[in-house]
Amino acid sequence: MKLLFEIGMEENPARFLVNALNDLKNNLAKKLKDERIDYQDIKTFGTPRRLVILVEGLAERQNDLNELNMGPAKKVAYGQDGMLSKAGLGFAKSQGVEAKDLEIVSTPKGEYIAVRKFSEGVETKSLLSDILKNLVLELEFPKSMKWADRKFRFARPIQWFLAIVDNELVKFEIEGIESGLESRGHRFFGGRFTVANVDEYFTKIRENNVIIDIAERKQMIRDLIVKNCTGEDEVVLIHENLLNEVTNLVEYPYPIVGTFNQDFLEVPQEVLIISMEVHQRYFPILDKNGKLLPKFVVVRNGIEYSDKVKAGNEKVLSARLADARFFYQEDLKQPLIENVKKLETVVFQKDLGTIAAKMRRVSKVADALIDKLGYEDIREDIQRTITLCKADLVTNMINEKEFTELQGLMGADYALKSGEKETVSLGIQEHYFPRFKGDKLPTTKEGIVAGICDRIDTLVGCLGVGIQVTGSKDPFALRRAALGIVNVILNSNLNVSLEALVDKSIEVLEADGVLKKDKVALKKEVLEFLKQRVINVFTDMGYRRDIISAVVEKSWDNVVETRTMIEVLGEAVQEENFKKLIGIVKRVGNIVKAHKTQDVNQELFREEAEKTLYSYVETLDKTTCELLSAKDYKGYLEAIVSGEEVINNYFDSVMINDKDEAIKNNRLSQMRRLNSIYEKMADLNFIEG
């Protein structure tokens, strides 16, 4: 059998559509499973006006129920008098049966009481009414509403239900809205129609100018834009998120090219693009060099071209762009530096003070980082970048909340037009990079230092005043800040200690008198937070998780060195000799788990193998220290692999757990010292296999 169910309603918000269809599919699948009804496939379709679900290969009857529910053991279920105990009575009650309905079942573990249940399956059609009704009542949305005198809630007022199995109506009713065999086509280019069977629905819905398949609508938009909306050397800028949204705003897409006054192009094109994409859901048109043209694409919810639709959208966009141009021209009337003093009135966080106070702290942390990195020759430019990098927050363009996505970019533009250096201008924009996962990273030293110091102040400051980060709550984007610090340091290949950075930030925040937590506890919390982000970054880079854990367990403060260690260790673990070493390392580690001292007394040696191992360890300790000091991680790993024969001979010749406690402990100390050498670069016990 085939089941088709359509929920018709007023236009649903585009962002609700996909999740609602997924929920419908999952909920229906669960209900069919609970009712023991088999099916082959469930498909969903949707537009702003309808949610559609199709079940193919629906079984005509439920499966029979034939199950044996096991209870407690017989000796527990019955007392010495042969009567049911409390446990036996409780089981019978939970199964809804009398004592006489219980049976004894023999199992390999003994005899148990049980209840056998059998129920013959009924026709599927007799169950569908309740299934579909509950499917509607249980569907949830981020925001729901009630309408008229109805009590139940839905995303938008429901207009109709179409419910049909093969060629029969599935009857149900929800507060006066009855299911039927009638549906409705496009609001303006379709009509009402009745279907006699499931297959007819798909024919008639298309005849009434509705494309119910989301993927098909999306591809139609792409194809029609390429076919009708681009001239020679032109390209339509199509961002996937916007395309998804537009797809779910229309039932039948028809892209139309509109134009706007080219005088607006004096405004940075990023501003114009945001006006089109974010505010109007239009697609900008660029030339082959990526420069914005005074043209755009609007996707009409209709089947044909319309001059009225074109003119209306052009008029709306012109008003938007006029606002943007006004803000831009007003902002250019004074140098960007004039906005800095206004930051004294903008609160960053109630306990951490204003943006101005924050940037003074950032400046102090930056001075220390500049010294560490040897950037003294551009100290003035870096500090100028930090002074100006938040100044665009109080400009008309950003402060009016119309173009908040452009913070940094507008500051860079205004700085350049105010006569600032190009590197300072670019640093203002880049200090925000990366803004999200996969975003570009800063290229200028000004942007690198400003971005790192801004983020460390945010991270340490927010945790220092008690702001908590949970799985669902991160109001100051502290995870993103920490990930940004790690990614920028790695991408820029900076020799930076995260601990030193945190120490400096805590020092500056304490001097500012804003910290609410003990410094020692705060430092521990921040470092643990950063450590987890370091692990996340290396995992995203594709390194093996066990190798990351092995290295990070011992060394993660300098993430550039950590990355090198991970790469070297990743290559080493592929070597056969190293695989053999891992077994030795884990054996040594297990032996000395509870033994802490490394003090070895040579006078307690009883076997030649002990002396040989002692000599080997002495040499190995010195060699590995020199190799690690020289950052020769490959040489270190080769050195620790070289002693396989010596160590195996020791294990073959020496009984560590000697009856003499002093000898035993001396041998354990020798193992502990060897283990400490193995753990200098990484905890090799984490290596899998």
Reconstruct the topology from this structure:
Layout: E1 3-9, H1 14-34, E2 41-47, E3 50-56, E4 65-73, H2 74-77, H3 86-95, E5 103-107, E6 110-119, H4 125-137, E7 158-165, E8 168-169, E9 173-174, E10 177-180, E11 182-184, E12 192-194, H5 198-207, H6 214-228, E13 234-236, H7 240-247, E14 253-259, H8 269-280, E15 283-287, E16 292-301, H9 307-331, E17 347-349, E18 353-354, H10 355-373, H11 379-388, H12 396-399, H13 409-417, H14 422-430, H15 445-464, H16 478-492, H17 498-511, H18 519-540, H19 545-552, H20 559-572, H21 576-591, H22 608-629, H23 633-641, H24 644-653, H25 661-678
Parallel strand pairs: 7-10
Antiparallel strand pairs: 1-3, 1-7, 2-3, 4-6, 5-6, 7-8, 9-10, 11-12, 13-15, 14-16, 15-16, 17-18
Explain what this protein looks like in three dimensions.
By secondary structure, the protein is an alpha+beta fold. It folds into five domains: 144 residues; 54 residues, no CATH class; 118 residues, no CATH class; 207 residues, Orthogonal Bundle (Hypothetical protein af1432), CATH 1.10.3210; 111 residues, Isoleucyl-tRNA Synthetase, Domain 1. Helices cover 49% and strands 14% of the residues. A hairpin with a 7-residue loop joins β11 and β12. α15 packs across α17. The two termini are 51 Å apart. The relative contact order is 0.05.
The biggest beta sheet is recorded as: 7 strands, mixed
Instruction: Tell me the CATH architecture of the largest domain.
Output: Orthogonal Bundle
CATH fold-type name of the largest domain: Hypothetical protein af1432
**What are the low-pLDDT stretches, counting only 5+ consecutive residues below 50?**
none
Q: Give the CATH class of the largest domain.
A: Mainly Alpha
Gyration radius (Cα, Å) is 35 Å
Kindly give the count of domains.
5
Number of helices: 25
* General form: flat
What is the strand tally? 18
Report mean pLDDT, rounded to a whole number. Answer: 94
Strand content: 5-15%
Residue share in helix: 40-55%
